[in-house]
Specification:
Helix content: 55-70%
Mean pLDDT: 89
Largest sheet: none
Radius of gyration: 18 Å
Number of domains: 1
């Protein structure tokens, strides 16, 4: 499990550069900037108070929310691909995956605690999706399918995000293979982190006060 860590010191300067760049990429406060520049609104002061694509859709509409979503996904993907672009390790190796995980964590930290927006950002769902899409596209697309199913059935984006997050380690452990043990550890951390960042949503779901992003299919068919 720890054998690949021995090679990390050889790339410490490059790794530090990647971590800094990944964090800065994650700190691009898309929701905040787009809201202020195009609508004169700080989305953190409306809706759920979250600087993420879901809240942007609720507050400013789909036309604004979708570009925010895509950019948040893109910045996570680019951050996790930095080790690949810089040829830090062999393609497909566990070491390269480990480097991508480190870069991905930095990007997610930047999204949640953005230096460009007073360290008050979003929950990191879209950015995590971009990171995982770069590291393991098949598992990530499968998780996205889980998200869509839960969203369409329930109408709750938060419930879909949490369910997709939990499904990631389940799929990775039992249905897909990975050369990196640390990716399995990371998958569990992602699931736990999503539950923690959605703790207020969980309370609202239990109380029946959570806002739906869309009308659930179950209601449409009645």
């Amino acid at each position: 499990m720890f054998s690949n860590l021995n090679a990390l010191p050889m790339n410490i300067p490059v790794l530090i550069l990647v971590i800094v760049l990944a964090y800065l990429l994650g700190s691009i406060a898309t929701a905040v900037w787009v809201g202020k520049i195009f609508h004169g609104t700080d989305v953190r002061e409306h809706g759920s108070g979250n600087a993420g694509a879901t809240n942007v859709i609720r507050v400013l509409g789909w036309k604004t929310g979708v570009p925010v979503l895509l950019i948040d996904v893109l910045k996570g993907w680019v951050a996790a691909m930095l080790p690949v672009f810089l040829n830090m390790a062999d393609d497909g190796s566990a070491l390269l995956t480990n480097y991508q995980i480190i870069a991905g964590l930095a990007a997610v930290a930047g999204h949640i605690y953005p230096v460009f927006a007073g360290f008050h950002g979003g929950k990191g769902v879209a950015t995590i999706f971009g990171v995982l899409l770069a590291i393991n596209p098949l598992v990530t697309i499968s998780c996205f399918g889980v998200f869509l199913c839960v969203l369409l059935i329930s109408g709750y984006a938060s419930l879909g995000s949490m369910t997709a997050g939990i499904s990631f380690p389940v799929l990775l452990f039992f249905f897909f293979e990975t050369p990196s043990v640390w990716l399995k550890v990371f998958s569990v951390l992602v699931a736990v982190a999503l539950l923690i960042t959605h703790r207020h949503n969980i309370i609202r779901l239990i109380k029946g006060k959570e806002s739906r992003l869309i009308k659930p299919l179950a209601r449409k068919t009645k």
